[in-house]
Write a structure and sequence with these properties.
The protein is mainly beta and 693 residues long. It has helices spanning 112-117, 200-206, 220-229, 433-436; strands at 24-32, 37-44, 52-63, 72-83, 90-104, 110-111, 131-134, 137-140, 143-147, 150-158, 163-182, 218-219, 245-247, 261-282, 285-306, 312-315, 324-326, 345-365, 369-386, 399-413, 418-429, 451-463, 467-490, 493-515, 521-534, 538-543, 549-555, 568-578, 582-592, 619-632, 635-644, 652-655, 667-668, 671-672, 676-679, 684-692. A hairpin with a 3-residue loop joins strand 22 (451-463) and strand 23 (467-490).
């Protein structure tokens, strides 16, 4: 990795070089389940006599979503221009790409008995407690939208046959966020639509909370009607006399603080940087030195998106102001104004982060032995500016934190078919921004410490004429982790939790293999066996939707299994050629050792001596695919069909709670039905037609 702060799992570098592409294009049309459609076209001009070339891509997708009320659409765009004249030592490439999208979400965790009680008969994996209709159309309080265009300029200079310089300059301006409810609507049973620390079965069926249709979806028309009929005309000093005004806290002058509006929480940013690497090669040796310079500014704030039948919203979030009424809204769209210069509510803060990194690499390679050693050092600077919540300290000091790493490895070829290798690394990684400024304030953490990662891997490989296998054993210890998570903390209203000083151990063995018994049949497989667990207890703090602390505690997770990722997985696949034009592939994946994740609202880990993480049922999934190649009007074309989860298997993919089953529990496959889980998708399909010209 040539980055100032390397990733732990690995880094992928993608280089776009339009001048290296031959002339031609491609048209793609894809159709899938639940109204999914994708149309795309791409074209490469190829390099002309003067060394110029360009590439273009544009695509659009739309769909209703497999889960109820999760429709969306998006656009992908890409353009590149390259210049590489014959005989020149220089190659230039400019690219511009992005993918703007919006989609409704399912963020309220659903209990197993909710899946049973709502939707179709039995377990309905599609169920979504968030969804509903407004004015006869799909509507949700949760809508994600984002657009992140990225411009990159690459300059490659071959100074001589041994010395090369590669430089990349880039800039990005991401805009967007997500919508959600705002207001103390839980004061009223009609507008108390989302459960808090209970499932929808208890919240709606047992307690009668919220306005829903006979099918169980939210009736947002009833919410609008209730907002309007239960809000008095405004009688205050601001020039909004007689209008219907809602709020989350202010309740004088006719303002209704128990109304419900849809706000938008923004996480936009401006990002510029430069990466440059000088590489020298001589015989079996290669040396390189590189720099990574980056500057990031993040904008975090809230705006009003939908007033839900009201005329305005009284905001008291800015502590520098006595309050203001806002009647302008922004659209929840990736290509429209996101309100970065308009009126804001609740919070408005800016985070600034700078990177300055230097790294060096030495590599040796001959037919028998290859070895590499890389070291790097970096500085990260952090500053936080708060325009709403810290009147006495609106702009923090700048905090500089040093970090570094050393990584190395070697490979030994035993003979023409066998090799052994090892990798090792130690990383002292700067903490996340939230760890530098905890509690959503501008005070710098006095107990700030770097994350410490130590990793080791040992492996063996064999490559035969029609068989190959790779086996590796690994151990990674990740200490001092800081994790911040969003969660629903007050009647479905957004909040967050911060977890600090997390230590995790990952150990395991991985096997990858492939076998081609005939020219037509190809087989491959994978096996991963892990032992991932927390090595100590750690502290947590909970914040409300105003970013105010509402409680602290300790999570007793020492020796608990790491959740949300299976610790035993295996996969086998057969790919068979039928005739000269048709290939069929069938894959089967088995998953075991999958555990529930932790949450600060999960009572299992609030006391020592607990039962640990909840183990979820194992499952197996089969996927079937076929590819047919043919000529269409003289153009090479392919038609592809995929069927995922061929046998429509029901399985739990994630759990956010750790309720262990007892003698009196109602269970599904041994799991207490009160647990909040995501069921995996049932059978889905997609087809695609690709024509090259």
């Amino acid at each position: 990795s040539r980055l100032a702060v390397p990733s732990v799992g690995g880094t992928v570098s993608i280089f776009t070089k339009a001048a290296s592409k031959s002339e031609g294009g491609k048209v793609l049309q894809m159709i899938g389940n639940d109204g999914y459609k994708k149309t795309g076209v791409s074209y490469n001009t190829g390099k002309n006599e003067k060394g110029w070339a360009s590439s273009f891509l544009l695509s659009r997708w739309e769909g209703d979503g497999y889960v109820y009320n999760t429709s969306g659409e998006g656009y992908t765009y890409f353009a590149a221009v390259g210049y590489a004249p014959e005989g020149s030592a220089h190659e230039l490439n400019f690219s511009f790409l992005g993918a703007g999208q919006w989609h409704h979400q399912r963020d309220v965790w659903v209990s197993i008995r909710d899946y049973q009680n709502f939707g179709s008969d039995g377990i309905d994996q599609r169920w979504n407690s968030n969804g509903g209709t407004l004015n006869g159309e799909e509507f949700s309080m949760r809508r994600n939208f984002y657009n992140k265009p990225l411009a990159t300029f690459n300059w490659d200079w071959e100074i001589n046959s041994n010395l090369k310089l590669a430089t990349s300059l880039y800039g990005s301006a991401g805009r967007g966020g997500g919508t959600g409810p705002r207001g103390r609507n839980y004061y009223n049973s009609e507008t108390d639509i989302l459960p808090f620390r209970k499932d929808l079965t208890e919240h709606y069926l047992e307690n009668g909370r919220g306005s829903r249709t006979p099918e169980g979806f939210i009736d947002f028309d009833a919410i609008v009607a209730f907002n309007q009929s239960n809000t008095d005309p405004y009688s205050g000093d601001l020039p909004f006399a007689g209008q219907l005004i809602g709020s989350n806290g202010f309740n004088s002058d006719g303002v209704n603080r128990s109304a419900l509006v849809r706000r938008a929480s923004m996480n936009s940013h401006d990002w510029v940087g430069a990466i440059s690497n000088l590489e020298y090669e001589s015989g079996d040796w290669k040396y390189s030195i590189g720099v990574d310079l980056r500057n990031y500014t993040g904008y975090h704030y809230r705006t009003i998106n939908n007033l839900m039948g009201l005329d305005g919203y009284y905001s008291t979030g800015n502590k520098n102001s006595a309050g203001q009424i806002i009647n302008t809204t922004i659209e929840a769209s990736p290509f429209n104004d996101t309100g970065i210069r308009g009126p804001k509510i609740d919070y408005y803060n800016v985070g600034k982060v700078g990177w300055q990194g230097l790294n060096g690499l030495v590599e040796y390679n001959n037919e028998t032995i290859s070895a590499v050693l890389q070291v790097g050092g970096s500085n990260q600077s952090f500053q936080r500016i708060d325009y709403f919540d810290v009147p006495g300290n609106p702009e923090s000091d700048t905090k500089n934190v040093d970090g570094g790493y050393i990584k190395g490895g070697a490979n030994y070829n035993i003979d023409a078919k066998q090799n052994v290798f090892f990798n090792a690394g130690v990383i002292s990684r700067q903490p996340q921004f939230g760890a530098v400024f905890p509690n959503y304030g501008n005070a710098i953490n006095e107990d700030l410490q770097n994350e410490e990662i130590k990793s080791f891997e040992l492996g063996y490989g064999f490559i035969g004429s029609n068989f190959k296998v790779n086996v590796n054993a690994y151990s990674t210890v990740w200490g001092n982790r800081f994790v911040q998570r969003s969660l629903s903390n007050q009647q479905g209203v957004d909040g967050s939790a911060q977890f600090k000083d997390i230590d995790v151990s990952h150990k395991g063995i991985e096997i990858e293999t492939s076998y081609n018994p005939t020219d037509k049949l190809r087989l491959k497989g994978m096996l991963s066996i892990g032992d991932w667990k927390y090595t100590k207890d750690f502290d947590a703090e909970l914040f409300d939707d105003n970013q105010q602390s509402i409680g602290t505690g300790t999570l007793y997770l020492k020796d608990a299994k790491v959740g949300d990722a299976a610790q035993f997985t295996s996969y086998v696949e057969a790919d068979y050629q039928i005739g000269s034009k048709l290939r069929v592939d069938l894959g089967y994946r088995f998953v075991d050792g999958l555990y529930a994740d932790y949450s600060i609202t999960d009572s299992e880990f609030t006391q020592p001596g607990n039962k640990g993480a909840l183990k979820l049922p194992s499952y197996g999934l089969a996927d079937l695919g076929a590819t047919y190649s043919f000529d269409l009007f003289g153009n090479s074309s392919t038609f592809r069909v995929n069927v995922n989860n061929l046998f429509d298997t029901y399985y739990i993919a994630e759990s956010n709670t750790n309720i262990h089953a007892g003698d009196a529990s109602e269970t599904w496959n041994g799991v207490d039905t009160r647990n909040s889980v995501w069921f995996g998708f049932g059978r889905t399909f997609n087809t695609s037609l690709k024509v090259r010209f």
